[in-house]
Amino acid sequence: MIENRTDERKEGRTRVRRPRTISISLAERGQTTQDFAIGIGVFLLAIAFVFSFLPSIVTPFDSSVSGAETAQADRIVDRIVHNVSTDTPNELDSSDFNENYTGTNLAAQLGLRANGPGSDDTVYDNVNVSVVSINGSVPVTDANGEKLAGGEHYSDQPAASAARIVTVNSPDTCTPACRLIVRVW
After folding, report:
1. Tens of pLDDT along 105-121?
2. First vs last Cα of the chain: how many Å apart?
3. Pairing state between β 91-92 and 160-168
């Protein structure tokens, strides 16, 4: 019952010959060992360049201040707000602030590593405490005209800082509010 159908289908077609597989010897191939070595060398140089360039991209975001200084600054600002506040939350008593936190050597008073009597004048931790206007441009003074600031002079060096929004009980001192900033370096 098998019929021969091949004649009907193939009559109108011409037979296409398939190309033969040609083998090329190793001496005639397209890529040589030198091409491979140069390609791998360029690839490795590109990878080395990426890995050497990558740390410089992240460098501006790297901080020279450790978490210890940040914790110290936060602890100090909390202590100042707690010790110098009036009955109103976050309102500083300017006379208590001037009495306790406007000196030049606050490190020992605030519990930081400082020079003791008979020490070698090595300063371990520096601290700066200041009350500034809310935008940070103008130092705040109390009713007597004294700046609400103390500690070592801060001149834009890397430092850990902590800030709290406060008011001062002196009239017309902080309208509507001020910032208490503590910097530790």
Report:
1. 777 777 776 555 555 55
2. 101
3. parallel
In which residue are the tokens 């001020």 written?
178
Residue predicted with more confidence, 104 or 70: 70
> Could you write out the three-class secondary structure of the chain?
CCCCCHHHHHCCCCCCCCCCCCCCCHHHCCCCHHHHHHHHHHHHHHHHHHHHHHHHHHHHHCCCCCHHHHHHHHHHHHHHHHHHECCCCCEECHHHHHHHHCCCCCCCCCCCCCCCCCCCCCCCCCEEEEEEECCCCCECECCCCCECEEECCCCCCCCEEEEEEEEECCCCCCCCCEEEEEEEC
**pTM above the 0.85 mark?**
no
CA-CA distance, 164 to 77, in Å (whole number)? 7
Within 10 angstroms of residue 132's Cβ, the number of other Cβ atoms is: 19
**Contact at 8 Å (CB) between 103 and 150?**
yes
Rounded-to-integer distance, Cα 40 and Cα 46, Å: 10
Do residues 182 and 78 make contact, with C-beta atoms less than 8 angstroms apart?
no
pLDDT, tens digit, 9 for 90 and up, residues 129-164: 988 888 766 777 776 777 888 888 888 788 888 999
Q: Peptide bond before 176: cis, by omega within 30 degrees of 0?
A: yes
Burial class of 87 by CB neighbour count within 10 A (0 to 12, 13 to 18, 19+): exposed
